[in-house]
Amino acid sequence: MKATHSVVEGLRIPIYQNLTLQVSTSGNDSTGGLSNLFRQPQAAIDWAVANLDFHNVESLTINIGNGTFNQIAIDKVFNGLAKIKVTGSDINNSIISGGFRAEHSNRIEISTLTINAGSGQTALFSYDSHIAITNSITINGTNASNGVQVHYFGTIYAANCTVSLNGSYGNHFRITENGKFIMMRGTVSINGSSSGIVMSCGTQSAITVGEGVINGSATGKRYEVTACSVISTNGLLSNIPGSIAGTVDTSSFAN
C-alpha cells in the first residue's frame, strides 16, 4: 500500500503497514517521498532510513521503472521491518549500473532487474544478508571482479526463475566464509569468460542447484571447491561450463 503522509521537520514518520516507494527517470531525489517519485533507488532507501519508523511491517518495496539507475547498497539496519523488496518493471529495461550489495543481516527480495558491473566491481553481493531472487534477473559484467558473490554467512536463494550471467569476470560465482548460493527449480545460465573460476566455493560454503538447470558457454576453470565446501548440482556437475577442468580438494565435495 502507498502511504500519503508528509515529513514534518525533526520528526520521523511511523509506518504500520506495507509501503511502496516509486523510482523513475522522471523523479527527483530532492523532493522524493511517500507521494513523490525518486530518481535513484539508493535515494529512496536512504530516505526511508532517515525518515521512517517501521512498526512490525512485513515489507518496504522499492519499485523501479524503466531506465538506467545507479548502484544499490542496502547496508543499514531497518528495525521493525521484515524485508526490503526491490523490483523492476521490465527485466530488459530496469537496469542497475554498478552492482547491488546487501549487508548487515538484511532480508532482501529482488526481481525483474538487469544488474551491470564494471571493472573491479561485483554485480550481486550478499555479506551476512539473505537475498531471495523471486523473478528472473540478468547480470552483465565488463571485466568485473565477480558476477555473484556471497560471503560471511550470507545467502542468495533463487526459485522458479532464471539467473543469467553474461560478460567477463574474475569469477562468475564466488562463495566464501560460510556463504550459500541455492537455486531450486530454476535455471542458472552462465556465459562469457572467467579469468579465474566459473564456480568458486571455499571455506565451509555451499552451492546447491536442486531440480534445476545449469547451462551456458562460459570459458575458464569450471569449478574449484576447497576448505570443507560443497557444490551439489543433483547430477548436473558436468553441465557447469568452462574450458579448464574443475578441482575439488580432499576436504570438500562436488557432484
Can you tell me about this structure?
By secondary structure, the chain is mostly beta strands. 4% of the residues lie in helices and 56% in strands. The chain starts with 12 loop residues before the first strand and ends with a strand.
Class of secondary structure makeup:
mainly beta
- Binned strand content: over 45%
Number of domains: 2
Order of helices and strands: EEHEEEEEEEEEEEEEEEEEEEEE
> How many β strands by DSSP?
23
In summary, what is this structure?
4% of the residues lie in helices and 56% in strands.
Index terms:
10-stranded parallel beta sheet, single chain, mainly beta, elongated, 255 residues, 4% helix, 2 domains, 11-stranded parallel beta sheet
Summarize the helices and strands and which ones pair or pack.
Blueprint: E1 13-15, E2 19-23, H1 41-51, E3 52-54, E4 57-64, E5 67-74, E6 81-88, E7 94-103, E8 107-111, E9 113-117, E10 122-127, E11 130-133, E12 137-151, E13 155-159, E14 162-176, E15 180-184, E16 187-190, E17 193-202, E18 206-210, E19 213-215, E20 219-226, E21 230-232, E22 247-248, E23 253-254
Parallel strand pairs: 1-3, 2-4, 4-6, 5-7, 6-8, 7-9, 7-10, 8-11, 9-12, 10-12, 11-13, 12-14, 13-15, 14-16, 14-17, 15-18, 16-19, 17-20, 18-21, 20-22, 21-23
